[in-house]
Design goal:
It contains eight helices and no strands. It is mostly helical.
Amino acid sequence: MPAVEELEKDEMMRHLMNALEQGRDIGHYGRLVFALGARHFMSPDELLQWLTKDRDCDEQKARLLITQVEQRNYNPPRRERVLEWMEKQGFPICPNPEDPDSCNLYKSFEFPHEVYEHIGSYREQKAESES
């Protein structure tokens, strides 16, 4: 299944993609959420094409974001983080924040096994550091 069709299964990703198609500025955190989720379904070049549809994101800015996300191997954000980031900018990343099932990428998609391993490893390290 093509990446766009796969990503459109999720309400938030569809919302972000529709805004990008319109050339809207989805904000730094909107671009970050999009990149963190979409990178598992799109090539870096496809991701670059989508991010540069944002009127406030030129090619250099988009490449920098993609490189940062890939180098640091960031996981897609949890719903709580999306809502937190949304409060820091004007564009509503989550189109339906009242719905507890909305804006949860882990509910909508099956990510590569490494994503879940990375989350488990992080939680173990955090628990050890707190004890």
